UniProtKB/TrEMBL annotation:
<dbReference type="InterPro" id="IPR006439">
    <property type="entry name" value="HAD-SF_hydro_IA"/>
</dbReference>
<dbReference type="InterPro" id="IPR023198">
    <property type="entry name" value="PGP-like_dom2"/>
</dbReference>
<protein>
    <submittedName>
        <fullName>Phosphoglycolate phosphatase</fullName>
        <ecNumber>3.1.3.18</ecNumber>
    </submittedName>
</protein>
<keyword id="KW-0378">Hydrolase</keyword>
<dbReference type="InterPro" id="IPR041492">
    <property type="entry name" value="HAD_2"/>
</dbReference>
<dbReference type="InterPro" id="IPR036412">
    <property type="entry name" value="HAD-like_sf"/>
</dbReference>
<dbReference type="GO" id="GO:0006281">
    <property type="term" value="P:DNA repair"/>
</dbReference>
<dbReference type="Pfam" id="PF13419">
    <property type="entry name" value="HAD_2"/>
</dbReference>
<dbReference type="GO" id="GO:0008967">
    <property type="term" value="F:phosphoglycolate phosphatase activity"/>
</dbReference>
<dbReference type="InterPro" id="IPR023214">
    <property type="entry name" value="HAD_sf"/>
</dbReference>
<dbReference type="InterPro" id="IPR050155">
    <property type="entry name" value="HAD-like_hydrolase_sf"/>
</dbReference>
<dbReference type="GO" id="GO:0005829">
    <property type="term" value="C:cytosol"/>
</dbReference>
Amino acid sequence: MDYRLYLFDFDYTLVNSEPAIVKCFHITLQKLGYPDVPDERIKKTIGLPMVEAVKRIVGTADDAEAERFVDAYRPEADRYMTPGTTFFPGAVETLRAIKATGAKVGIISNKTHRRIQEKFDVDHVPELIDLIIGSNDVKSHKPEPTGLLRAIDHFHMAKDDVLYTGDSYIDAETARNAGVDFLAITTGTTSAETFARYPHIAILPAIAALKDELAKNRE
């Protein structure tokens, strides 16, 4: 496993933001007078573009209704999201190991750029990320490959030199659409069996296992 550019999804891949996301959705549902929904229904939308997640949770196809929900959700996220988000064990160490090889590191996520940057700043590790492309940085969101292709172009990389790592079938589809290698992590809601149906170089149980794979290359 030897790449020059390592790109990652964020939620459920590098960080566990599940408690914060679930909390913010429950608060917003109550605030707007919607019936509450089970936690599992919310969890299955993590990683989707926010408007799409809202539509699935609320049960609407109306863009205006979903946008109204997002507007009400945003102040709750400002309050709870970053404090309620934690790096998975070994995530920071894995990013450090990648940077030590001289490779570049980026994040391509359906979360906003600001929210991702905030987490790295709060944990005092902004130097581990060379580029963030969030939902507000592109017009077309995953599984459209726009973000991945922009990162590849930004670093002037050949696609053979790029690895995208994610926890969702959405990430697998994004990598396939971009024509880059994909590494699956099963810390999200997508099973290894589902990932097996997509092109992949490996299916790992957690992000920390990637650090072990990198160590093998040095042996």
